[in-house]
Automatic annotation (TrEMBL):
It comes from Alicyclobacillus sendaiensis PA2. It comes from the Bacteria. The keyword Zinc-finger does not apply. This is ROK family protein. Coiled coil: none annotated. The lineage of its organism: Bacteria, Bacillati, Bacillota, Bacilli, Bacillales.
Length: 399
């Protein structure tokens, strides 16, 4: 027995599929869309005409023809709407406004001191609200204005509910943050883990040519955003990708998660202090009010051998964890993001050396590279676009 097909749901999916295809290709035509999607020509023509009337798609001339009428070329109108992405870290917050292709038109970095706040929630709410209002005012005029905003947080969040499970570095748990923000900001809001947002940006930036990738976000902690077959993998409860808490030393250092020997204790900024001390660096010369990593990196660039050795140690442990991820997931690529990635000159050769020893078979050849700047904030804006314009294309077809 066959269930009735929901015609409106089918049309919604077809529309999202056609729009997504036009976005993904530089130019295309109605006949090409019909051939690539399997939709009949009349359906495609009706959807395209509707998208043109809505200013989401533009006609940009004629293509070549091997015979008969030349096809009219179509292009995605990236400036038809905009979205906001916010990357929240303990020390700073980056806010961007991007068009619906992820091209930034506004960027603002705001210092934060969440680690010093007695109650993080009101401090963070006020900062996000203020930056969202600035971003809303900065968005250029467009046919559809702002589609929404996505907040990227460094911890365990539930994307579906828009709520925080736990932000370990800020010691904040069980917080319905989008409900609080929704009472003061009147645009659609989304919430995700920062590594997921970085992974989505890298996936979209490559025109989705790579279907499987891992984005490793490294700062005070470590998280991994995982794209599998073109979809973010969030797991059952939304907390997949907490790679920083896989054990690399069973009898190792205590982690703030309550366990011991977690990867992020050895391959994040927290591990760097240990390696600097072991390498004999002059810690008394460091300014406690400034970034440890930035100070150590400047010294390493000035040929401070102790700092160089410390970054090599950091790279070795970073490589150990990445080799585990390669053996587990066998992705097309691994991308490094976050503050530690700025030290790639010193850590990446060590990462690659460890991978050659510890990864299996073809995993040894999987490329590891540094991601784009502001990947998390831009990826957050692209997630807001995806959820408002394209998510229907990812839904299962009705039966």
């Amino acid at each position: 027995m066959h269930a009735n097909v929901d015609a409106s749901a089918m049309r919604r999916m077809n529309r999202a599929t056609v729009l997504k295809l036009i976005r993904d290709l530089r130019t295309t035509s109605r006949i090409d869309i019909s051939q690539m999607t399997g939709l009949n020509k009349a359906t495609v023509s009706n959807i395209v005409d509707e998208l043109i009337a809505e200013q989401l798609v533009l006609e940009v001339g004629y293509g070549s023809s091997s015979g008969g009428r030349k096809p009219i070329l179509l292009r995605f109108n990236a400036n038809a709407a905009y979205a906001i992405g916010v990357d929240v870290q303990l020390s700073h917050m980056t806010t961007v406004v991007c068009n619906i292709r992820g091209e930034p038109v506004y960027r603002q970095v705001r210092p934060l001191a969440l680690s010093e706040a007695q109650d993080v929630r009101p401090v963070l709410l006020e900062a996000i609200e203020e930056e969202l209002r600035k971003a809303i005012a900065a968005a250029p005029p467009s046919p559809y204005g702002l589609l929404g905003a996505c907040i990227a947080l460094p911890g365990m969040v539930d994307f579906r509910r828009g709520a925080v499970y736990y932000l370990p570095s800020a010691f904040v748990g069980e917080w319905d943050i989008l409900a609080d923000l929704g009472r003061i900001v009147d645009i659609p809001l989304f919430l995700d883990n920062d590594a997921n947002c970085g992974a989505w940006n890298e996936y979209m930036a490559q025109a989705m040519k790579l279907k499987n990738l891992v984005f490793v976000n490294m700062g005070l902690g470590i998280g991994a955003g995982i794209v599998i077959e073109g979809k973010l993998y969030r797991g059952r409860d939304g907390i997949a990708g907490e790679a920083g808490h896989m054990t690399v030393n069973p009898m190792g250092s205590a982690c703030m998660c309550g366990s011991y020997g977690c990867w992020e204790e050895y391959a994040s900024e927290r591990g760097l202090m240990r390696y600097l001390r072991e390498a004999g660096a002059d810690l008394s010369a460091l300014n406690p009010r400034e970034s440890l990593l930035e100070q150590a990196l400047e010294e390493a660039q000035n040929d401070n051998r102790a700092c160089i050795r410390a970054f090599h140690s950091l790279g070795q442990y970073l490589g150990l964890g990445i080799a585990n991820l390669l053996n587990l997931l066998n992705p097309d690529e691994v991308i490094l993001g976050g503050s530690v990635a700025r030290a790639a000159t010193f850590v990446l050769p060590e990462v690659e050396r460890v991978i050659k020893h510890r990864a299996l078979l073809q995993n040894k050849q999987i490329p590891v590279r540094v991601g784009s700047q502001h990947a998390v904030a831009i990826g957050a804006s692209l997630l807001a676009v995806h959820e408002t314009l394209f998510a229907s294309a990812m839904e299962p077809m009705p039966t």
